[in-house]
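Figure caption, in words: inputs first, then the predicted bound structure.
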Amino acid sequence: MKTIIQKVNQTDLENVSFSEAEKLLKNGELVAFPTETVYGLGGNALDETAAKKIYAAKGRPSDNPLIVHIASVDALNVLANDVPEAAYQLADVFWPGPLTMILNKSKIVPYGTTGGLDTVAIRMPSHPVAKRLIAESGVYIAAPSANLSGRPSPTTAQHVIEDMDGRIAMIIDGGSAQIGLESTIVDLTQDKPMILRPGFITMEKLKEVLPEIGIDPAVVSKKMNKNIVAKAPGMKYRHYAPKGELTIFEGTMDKVIATINQMAKEKVEQNLSVGILATDETKDKYPYGVVKSIGSRNEEQEIAAHLFGILRDFDTIGVSYILSESFEDNSLSQAIMNRLLKAAGYQVVQCD
Ligand code: AMP
Ligand code: MG
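Bound structure (magnesium ion present):
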């Protein structure tokens, strides 16, 4: 399949036409598009055949459900049953934006979209391109991240082209995704609202609206714990993995730097290629390997925005090993560490 690439000028969006993308979506084809979190791989959420195409293009296991993107709160009652008051309270504060809610699905949502579940994940994105595609096409767009299953999520159109060129009908290039991490997922189908995936909307911000909110044990676990059954089916799969073997180093900064240097030296002496994921504060302290800074430790949002891109950069360079510093486990860094731990397959070295 020849993939059409439409480059859009962010500063002149009103004058851009998305009619071709909208026609493709209405006809059950797939279109990748920018959102404020990461690039999405969109198809008609109510068309089981389109959902199947999404799974095929990504190589995604079919029990890993898709998020349905909407452009108006009215869609909640169309796609979901028994919508609780909490959903409207969250929508009021955080939509449009990087928050996904899990609700009981209505009849019109096919099981092909929900991975066989009776619940459906719904989000209203704030990115102007995403908003227009949904509103103008009149299609509820099922859109997982537009990467091949298992790879780091795409934060630029170039990342999408790497993974999806020739596999889908169209890619809309709208520049870099601002946030760089996928949406926060909140399950509203149980008695107590629960965070199933941390993201840009942090626990603290959610608590201001729903003080009783909890967090799924699988999210805070530092291990791939088989005894903890992940509520969000996607959590059980290997995710975000770069091609090089990624290890995270935890402990005091001095010890982390010393341990990474020792390991990097050993690898380099064996002629193995090493990448080091450092920060602005530490990047000059590593004499071995290819050192890349993810940003300043004082700028969590910058680190979040650079995470997936830097993992892909190491793939492009072709390093066999990636040695990474770790981050705090609170606020936005909780989401950063959650993605990094998964990318590393939970391979962590304690430096004490
Ligand atoms: P992605 O779009 O690639 O970020 O993946 C979406 C993720 O949302 C999936 O991997 C699931 O973990 C989660 N998700 C989607 N639908 C549901 C649902 N009905 N119940 C629980 N988690 C869901
Ligand atoms: Mg994904």
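Residues 300-317 form the longest helix (18 residues).
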